[in-house]
Amino acid sequence: MLGKFVQSRHNLRDFVEQFMRCISQMRSRKAHSYLLSVVGEPVLQSPFHDLERSAAKKLTRVIFFNFRPMLFRACTLKVRTHTWSQTSNTFTLSRSANTRREWQVCHYGDSNSFKCSCLRMESLGIPCDHIVAVLVHLEMTDIPDSLVLDRWSKSARSKVRAFVEKGPFCWDSTITCRNWMLNDLCRKMCVLACRHEAEFADMTDKVLHEIARLKEIQDSGDAGGLNEVGEASTLEGCVRDPQLVRCRKRQRKETLKGVKRCGLCRQTGHNRVSCHLNPNSRMNTQQGASYFGGEGEGETGTMEDSSEEEELAWDDAADLALDEGYDSQGTI
């Protein structure tokens, strides 16, 4: 996704601006998906309405759409054997059309958790159709919490927001960089101040005094920067719409169209292909010479003289060929 914003021709400033645009768009998409998950309820389509309704209430909309096909595929599975043990119950399943391929699903009653041999739940965090078939076999109408990851639940966003509000972290990149810088400086100060007892006591008093002063400023509401931190620490204040930036149009260079001239004679009205100075030109005849060389009679006369000389040379060559044929045969 970053490749849509950042290009090789961007400098450092453009890279930072485009990177922040990419982050803003990602947050906007996440907020839009969260809105779709909260508002409205999907239409129940599978034969297991209770499980589908429970999944729609717990999972986000995108993850729910990925989980819904598992409900349809569970209809083709059947529990073949059931094994009891002290810690778990093992179910062996296979499809109706292919009984050779089997899957084992373990149900742990203490934690109410499931584990399948296909490892889809461990890989993607979405319950597989084999686990759904076992839930139907056990006549469960609600999906256990062990099959719903916190990352794919609707309450994941509220948990992150509560963590950000209570902790020193913030979604704003500027505030986060300031926090890291202060942590680095405080780490160096602690290393230097803890070597001597007098410096340690003096630095402790100063730090406590600064903490008390900042708290008073924050409580009074006179800290402009701290109020911005409090507003940005909430999730709604951090998610913003992507900035609309107009593309810069390339300025067209004004070009002056000059008069086209021939590359051989540098005259206007023709090119070097049809020029009379080109020996391979079709117009290198008396008509072409009269058409292109109409600037003076001398040039036209020169072309006529050269054409007459060529005709005389052709006549002499023909007479010579006739004489040679007569001498060799004796008669014509």
Walkthrough of the structure:
With 332 residues, the chain is of the alpha+beta class. 52% of the residues lie in helices and 8% in strands. The chain has 12 helices and 4 strands, in the order H-H-H-E-E-E-E-H-H-H-H-H-H-H-H-H. A hairpin with a 6-residue loop joins strand 2 and strand 3. Helix 3 packs across helix 5. The chain is flat and about 120 Å long.
Given the helix and strand composition, which structural class is it? Answer: alpha+beta
Q: What's the number of domains?
A: 4
- Global geometry: flat
Radius of gyration: 45 Å
Spans of at least 5 consecutive residues with low confidence: 223-239, 291-304, 326-332
> Beta-sheet strand percentage?
5-15%
List SSEs in N-to-C order.
Answer: HHHEEEEHHHHHHHHH
- What average pLDDT do the residues reach? 75
Q: Count of DSSP E strands?
A: 4
Largest sheet descriptor: 4 strands, antiparallel
Oligomer: single chain
Number of helices: 12
Read across the widest sheet, the strand sequence of neighbours is 1-2-3-4
Helix content: 40-55%
End-to-end C-alpha gap? 92 Å
Structure described in brief:
The protein has about 325 residues and is an alpha+beta fold. The chain has helices spanning about 10-40, 50-60, 60-75, 120-125, 130-135, 155-165, 175-195, 195-220, 225-230, 235-240, 285-290, 295-330, and strands at about 75-85, 90-95, 100-110, 115.
